[in-house]
């Protein structure tokens, strides 16, 4: 329910504020980020309000609605051709292409590079905000935390905070079946539905100290639970949200956690970012 319709609004604001405090970013200065769309939407909200010109590079494999959303808020989105994946299926190689274009534009524009995958303020944002919010809203009762991993900011920051509050808390990473590097498995299915997650690498912000296990989910399970969240709860969400809920159900049925455990996860963004578009828009 964040203003940019994704969990990335809070980390966007936090990273921008940190950059302004340190002097790395000047008031009104240009900002650049490489994104799958969610961080870009969060940054577009923040930069619009704070008056920073924003340029984003994003793989053409990510849904066109994300580019429309970001540009509607005044950002410029450069959509970079894919080298390996297909529309709706973005691989690490595709991300690297978007990153290369972003690095070229950083120099050209003299922009501050957010660098969400390596920016410690990304995880710190969730340690300072998401973790405390969950702890407060559950009445200090959380047994299990479950989350997909893109940059690992949400998982690392939130898990760190909740484990400090409840040393017995269990944290589980959700990975798409066939792309489970955190579990230590060979990548056999780099193409999957989880845009912005499951890139086939262990992110630099990820900390194994805060993980108690992993849960794998299939594309079919992701679609099933994404649809059920809408049909049963009235919430139109994206695929990583479906993955998170599918994983929570897996855990509760597996015997790995008590059947009466309070399992908390996140619904990462709106399903409006994924609706199919005409071919000419792709």
From TrEMBL:
Superkingdom assignment: Eukaryota
| Residue ranges of domain Tryptophan synthase beta chain-like PALP in the record | 1-268
Any one Gene Ontology biological process term? cysteine biosynthetic process
User: A single Pfam family, by name?
Assistant: PALP
Q: Which InterPro entries match?
A: Cys_Synth/Cystath_Beta-Synth (IPR050214), TrpB-like_PALP (IPR001926), TrpB-like_PALP_sf (IPR036052)
Task: Tell me which PANTHER family the record gives.
Answer: CYSTATHIONINE BETA-SYNTHASE
Please state what the protein is called. Cysteine synthase
- The protein's organism comes out as Papilio xuthus
